[in-house]
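Predict the holo structure. Ligand: zinc ion.
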Amino acid sequence: MFKKIKYGKIEVRSQTLVLFSAIYFAFILNLAFWRYILGHVQINNFANFFFIISTAISVVSAFYIFFNLIIVPFAAKPLLSLLLLFSSIVNYMMFSLNVFVDKDMMRNVFETTTAEAWDLVTIPGVIWVLVLGILPAVFLIRIKIKYLSFKKELFSRIKLIAIAIILLLIQVPFFYKSYASFVRNHSEIGHLLNTSNYIDGTIKEIKTRLNSNHKFIRLDENPSLVLNDDGAKTVFILMIGETARDANFSLGGYKRNTNPFLRKEDVIYFKDVKSCGTSTAYSVPCMFSNLTRSGFSQSKARYMENVLDLIKRAGYDVIWQENDEGCKHVCDRVTIENMLERKNSPYCRTGYCLDEVFLEGLDKKLMNIKKDTVIIMHTMGSHGPAYYKRYPDRFKIFKPTCDTSDIQNCSRESVINTYDNTIVYTDYIISSVINTLKKFPNLESGLLYVSDHGESLGEKNLYLHGMPYAIAPEEQKTVPMILWMSDNMKALDYINYSCLKSKAKDNDYSHDVIFHSLLSILEVKTISYNPDLDIFRSCRTRRFPY
Ligand SMILES: [Zn+2]
């Protein structure tokens, strides 16, 4: 099989390499896929046992056909090396963190910042990729692949591909029922098949980017402010949470006191708010868009105005303060302050800043308000897996903590402790912003906090987020939403606050309400406003638009 030739290079026949690669990719680089199959098919009868054997034959055959097509002179080594590298990384992510890889995940990969990527680099991860990806690639580069003559090689390939196809054709129909029912009940299985999942996701993502209609849609040429002569300047702060889940907020019923600061404030906590997506790249553009979750697509939203455009055109100063992974084009046409540029801030480390950076200079900003202003604070929140990096030492309240990105090697208890510390810190940041606003009673001020998506912390053995929405667990989809209003804002906006409080307890809301509720509370009159999605509407003493 392997032959040593004169000058010490190992010689491998092309056909041996094709078969070996097919088996290696089908099994070793697909550990997550097989764990899933074995976890969902009970081997308690012959039918299921043979279904698993059939699946193995099908996967190997498919890879065998694929490698017969790409293992050709000149292309074999570079292509195979790249596949080994990427597939071993994906294999590690899927196996250790239980993530599924699809188009949305690939979009996240493309839009990830360097600092975030570094957070994912862990020692076991590096060893895994080194052993299963890089070393085989080095071996591959050093060997000599021996091909037959062009004609012979071609005929042998055609023959072998035909055999693989026949193998697929004779046994898949035999188990057709099992395949059909398995795929119907576990449609996410395709996202676990390593190599095809990320290639497919990447192609789909590129297609979306190329195909999207580049004609930019403006929503309303003439949005206007109603009652803008009330004397007080409006300052509204919209805080976008990162990876904060409702399940860990004591304001939402969590048994631990993770909201020690906000508990003392007169805030409204909205129960059971559903996020639009399970990732930042999906949820953030969605919550600012008027498309609603059912009509939303990232490519549509990319070439369309969002609520910030309307607010700005109506006359507000709109400032987007960025401390996360970018605004996903939502802030393309408003003022941007990138917190990472505050190099001298005591809250900034290499590549990221603690959310306290938002408190720096906020006093001064409020003191100098000359115009109605909306500030969006895009927080770092509870961004994982490096939860321990999200808060300063004094917020190490729940212990022991998991002080590594390698969360699957920590006890579940310590992962939850660390995550809960990020929530207490977020609680502190929100209440500090509220208390800063309170120092300026002459302003008509308010704050809305809402998280982009939730997080899995080991429930059903799942971690992080980004699961396809249809099968994502509640923990990834239910997010905290918190409102605070100054007395000035309650009065000038005709808001019955206790009415809102009771509505927040009884109604189920979603990210769909943000677009229209913002227009409403900021008193922007526009044709894009939909009263049915305005959380304030039924609690106003005067009907909006006035
Ligand atoms: Zn996020």
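The radius of gyration is 27 Å. Residues 108 and 281 are 6 Å apart (CA to CA).
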